[in-house]
Amino acid sequence: MPNTIVRHSYDHLREEEEESSESSSAEVEIFNAHTSDANAGTTDVTSKRHNLETTDGSDGMNPHRSVCLEVFRNTWDEFYEWEKEYCEAKLAALMSERRKGASATATISTTAKKARPTSPPDPTWVIPCPQTTIDLSGILADFDAGPQYESCTPLNGNVYVGDDPDVMPFLPFGEEDWDGYPLPDGGRKRFAYEDYIGEYSELGWMDAFDDPDLDCILYATTNRLAKMSISYAQMDATGVFARTPRMPLLSAPSGDPPGLEARAAKRDFPPFPCLPSPVSPHPSPPPVLSTLRTRIYPLFCHNLTCIRQICPTHPEGTPYPHTTIPEKKSVHLVGNDSSPCSTTCFLLFSKPSGTTLTSSAFSRVVLAPAEHGQRGITGASRPAILDSWSAADRDTLITILELDADARPCDLAVIMKKSCSDIFHFRKRMFPDAMIAPRNPGKAPLKPSRHGTRDNILVLDPQTYTSPGPCYHPGPCDATCPCVLANVQCERKCLCDDFCPLRKGCKCKPQLVAKGNNKDRGVKRVCCRTKRCPCKRAKRACDPEQCVGCAISDSQSPTCCNMAALWAAAGRHRKAVEVRRSAHGYGLFLKESVLADEFLMEYTGEAILDPTCISRDHIIAYRQRNYLFALHTTLGVDSSLAGDPSRFINHGNPPNLVDGSMSVGEGIANVYSHVEIANGGHGVVLYAIDMEAGTELLLDYGPKFFNQISGGDEDGDEEDNDDEEENVEREEAKKYTYWDDDPEYGEAEEYKE
Ligand SMILES: C[S@@+](CC[C@H](N)C(=O)[O-])C[C@H]1O[C@@H](n2cnc3c(N)ncnc32)[C@H](O)[C@@H]1O
């Protein structure tokens, strides 16, 4: 029986109230017609149509050619007039924000008018670029430019790039000082063009350049011409646009290159008033969540920390949200947890004051049929349920209930921002009690959580509850935190410590160790901070899908310290940081205090293969900033183009150096890194020592780093190189020794390999 329900189509619930959305689309038609007229811009559409009609083509030219040219020129002029004003207004707005109301003095002059396109002299027609000069002297007087840095795309996890394409993306001739670029030691070094060029087979800048302004002008032009009843095919046939770099307007038969319309749909234009306005807002958005689940989600890697479309890292079966079978009849939704979530909770509909609502009482009064005279959920006095719900709301609830059929209405009320009684009623219609198989009679009743039930929380919660203030504890803090339950402020030594595995002296649960030598067999406390954790021994972060036992040591607190990277990548527990100026450009500063060995964040970026690391080295040396982190001999993580805030962590001296050998003025490293296999891929994970909020994070970049950035030969000959590598490995080994053999974390001595 339950299977029948799972396969059931809930479309009848989704399709309710279709009429209302139909009327909205009619409104949009009218709205579009209206805005289209408004968007005709300053060109007189009527007179152009008249011109068009009087063009007889007697000169043998395409009859639409002169009209197309004229509209193109007018739009060109209007665009550059408008762009000048737009940029001035933007700059003024930015400056008044910056200077609290002071007027901006940026002036813009442009030669666009003189550079307008003329009749195309065959066979080539070059559109001269307008020269725009912006005089920023008034602004720069008190403008405090920040240090140079590389901007990058934010990333949650590493993105596998492998090798860069063979096309040279950048050639720093323009900025190059012919005496060479300055080195930190005051010297200068010439950019090694020959070596750099040798890395690529083609020059990227010789490819056809897409002028974004021209696209905008063309889009506005063709929009106007279309209003004059000239089709795209006719426009193309004039040859006016076909000679511009990104034509034709229609797609070529092969679909390559795409037509203007297709390209326009994919990009954002500046708010040039002559552009057609987008058709928005949509009156009734398409069902979002179900589309996401059935059509979009399957396109991407399902791994939480990886959203690539074609993912080579996680080809194995990944978790996919499956539909569930409803097990609870409506009456059982009350369960052990009978506390109303709010004063309008569905549980309160007929609850006599001063009484406790039990399951049976609930079934008597709340689920009572209307004729019993009760004001129950099914009572006739209730307005038609879901009157105010949109199709998207219904779709969302159906999708959620398909995935979690027995979810509590009170919890869903929070997600849906609807009343739990509406949700309860909806669920009852979706899963009628008659279709739900009786619960397994032998099944033990659900136990209340050992961290408290909703009842506990509600004692503190509804009107009287005040926040316990900032929480300083290292583990997860939510409504089940004992400090919250006890209404005390969380502190370093808070009650959470008893079950939070992030604290020192990890309290991982005893586990059955089936394999290993005699000493290991039997029930033992396995601490995930030692090599006893099988994942830790395999140098991989615990993964709930793959590892048994230690990954989730406590269902209430699933933050195993050995899977910190995984959870952080999923957006949890990453430490709060901010980027500020520091002694070396920008730096990363803590916004909260952290304890020793606490997870900070993962260092994310593009995972690139060694040859690409080498080819990028030329640019690194040129700009004197290196964001490349070596994972191992095959892969590096480069955050220069994409990454997270950890890319701003500056270098600090290794803590074990004697004072004399430290670089003057440098801080001591307070962050250490650990290469882990988290979620099936290598990642650099950063951990901290004890630190207060406000501290700048510093990481020891290692002995090679600054040698490499100055464009030197790194280590000289091969032998030296090997020595150096050995040293680095020894240093790394020391870190692991510290990690694994710290007496605080257990008897790792026995497990030394
Ligand atoms: C990963 S980035 C750090 C963020 C960088 N400060 C920024 O503003 O983007 C590394 C670069 O910062 C600079 N840097 C970091 N620590 C330094 C130090 N202790 N001394 C000199 N330069 C440092 C070097 O240019 C280095 O290549």
Brief summary of the model shown:
The chain contains 22 helices and 21 strands. The protein has 753 residues and is α/β, with parallel strands linked by helices. Helix 5 crosses helix 8, helix 11 (288-296) packs across helix 13 and helix 14 crosses helix 15.
Care to describe what's here?
It is a single chain. The strands form 9 sheets. A 4-stranded mixed β-sheet has the order 4-14-16-15. The two termini are 56 Å apart. Helix 5 (65-98) packs across helix 8 (212-227) and helix 14 crosses helix 15 (420-430). Strand 11 (577-582) and strand 12 (585-590) form a beta hairpin. The chain has 22 helices and 21 strands. By secondary structure, it is of the alpha/beta class. The longest helix has 34 residues, at 65-98. The N terminus and C terminus are likely disordered. Among the domains are: 40-129 and 211-265, no CATH class; 568-751, Beta-clip-like (Beta Complex), CATH 2.170.270. It binds S-adenosylmethionine. The site of S-adenosylmethionine (SAM) has 16 residues, from strand 12 and strand 18. InterPro entries: CXC_dom, EZH1/2-like, SET_dom, SET_dom_sf. GO terms for molecular function: chromatin binding; histone H3K27 methyltransferase activity. Residues 33-45 have a biased composition (Polar residues). This is SET domain-containing protein. It comes from Pleurotus eryngii (Boletus of the steppes).
